[in-house]
Amino acid sequence: MKRAINWWMAGMVTAALSGPGWAQSPPPPPTLWKCGIPATPCDDSIPANRDWGNAANWTNGVPQANQLVIVNRAEGGSVYVDYRDTSGGTPLTLNNLIIVDAVVRHTSLSGNLSTLNMLLQGSIASGAYQFNSGGSVNVLGPMNIDAAPGNNPSEFTHNGSGTVTAGALILGSLPGNTGNFRMTLGSNGTLNVGGDSIVGGQGEGFFGQFSGTHTNYGRIILGQATGSIGTYNLAGGNLVASDSFGGGTTIVGDQGDGHILNHGTAIHESKGDLILGNQAGSNGKYTLYESGQVFSKKTIVGAQGTGTFLQLTGIHETGTLQIGTATGGLSSYTLKGGELNAVNAFVSARGTLTYSGGTTTLTTPFDPNNPTGFREPGILTVAPGGRVNVTGTAATGLDFYGAVDNQGTFKITGSIISWHDRFINGNSYISDPSKNIFMSDLEITSNGYLVGGLGDVFEMRKGFLNSSTQAALWKTSDAELDFVGAGDHLFGVSGDGSSEAFAWAKIMAGSGVRLSFFDGTPGSLGMALWVDVLDLADGINAILLDPGELLTIHFDPNNAGNAWLVDLGYTSGVLALGSALPPSVPEPSTIALLGIGLAGLAATRRRKR
Q: What is the reported pTM?
């Protein structure tokens, strides 16, 4: 059965013919593609029958300025229309161009098309526009690409080297409808959108970019409404969300579901924010791999919705990285390779950062006015309930550049991780098992604690500033604490020494290391350490105490690693410094080697005797 033209477009047609722009000069009557009229058979294998410039193919002549143009395919009628520029060099702008279930092929080398609005619609098939030239397509208003449920998506294909300009771009605007836009490999064309680019309005939208440049001056939105789906396959070229006119934001999952795949040699620049999972109930996902790159002012992974960022390789640079919010969905960032560079990062109570490969650098931006080029470290802040997981390792280990303020949970599994700037641990740090290298101070606050077992190493290149009061949660009796690098290392001792709550399997200090002990929990009865093996390359000379400080180290005298202590006379497994002398008093020359002021104390005691 043949069908008439889709008069469900009557609203658009009426609006086009009665808009304010035509108040003084009414537009000419619409012109329809004859092959789209039932009972008008056409053979589009004949070039003349698909020629846009052939007046015989139109009901009211070749399209002219301010005219509504409808290319509609009747059942069994023509499919293809070959567009050619008939303006004669004088620019003209159509009122609206509506393509239904037909394909318009724009193949002229320098032809230009201009229209106020463009609609590609599919009702029994799909509406399509194939731009294969070096000319231009200029849509002053929105370009709307839709196909009804059950049909192939309507599609605009940018195959040429020319320029496409639209006031707005909407793919899949109606519920259940689908729309595509493709910038194919090798086209090197340009797409400029003055307003929003919406991929998945209320329906499903897909944007495939393999080359060229897509610049958007409004927002880029994937999955705008509830139930919508928007996918952007960025496999090459440049995607730019410009902030020149107040835009610059990329939203992946506004109220619906959105996904960006950034790979190949593609570059995505979001001059404003990059938001994954914007509103409640939304889902936003970003996958970065191969040599893809993404740059943004701020990256929010999970605003009020759920965000997921998976970085396998590539480069991600952002001002601030925020993972989750206190009230949003569960959100995560997984770094398996490549580079993650930011000024600061924040992991909320409902966020998780997983780090298993690549390099993370948090640092202030380069200041050209600073002749040294020095940059202050940025800060990774983990809120209560937030999680950071470090998994896997490489031959050279993993590196994290930037300060850390942890009030959540860090779990390091099977890794070698180097923290290059100050690390403040105000809650849980779990090693299972791993080597944890702290290149700067490790500060453990009263609420912080460490957990480690057999095979876990905590290596201090600077200070171990321990003020923890979490005796019940601290578990390192099977782990090793190492101090590496000649010079003074602050060593905070927690607890009152009445239990083995803060015990270690081994404490090691390398050559040239001096441990400057201080009481991390003032008010306790002196300082006490419990350790199976005390391995000090420089012996007791490695221990420094302030005047009046008391330190007791409990060790295993039967362990071969402590033979040097037993040889000094500490046979009971207790090394008391600052107040108590060992059972057999060493020679004064030996006492002088202690380096902690004990020589003066010993002389005083001899005078008393």
A: 0.86
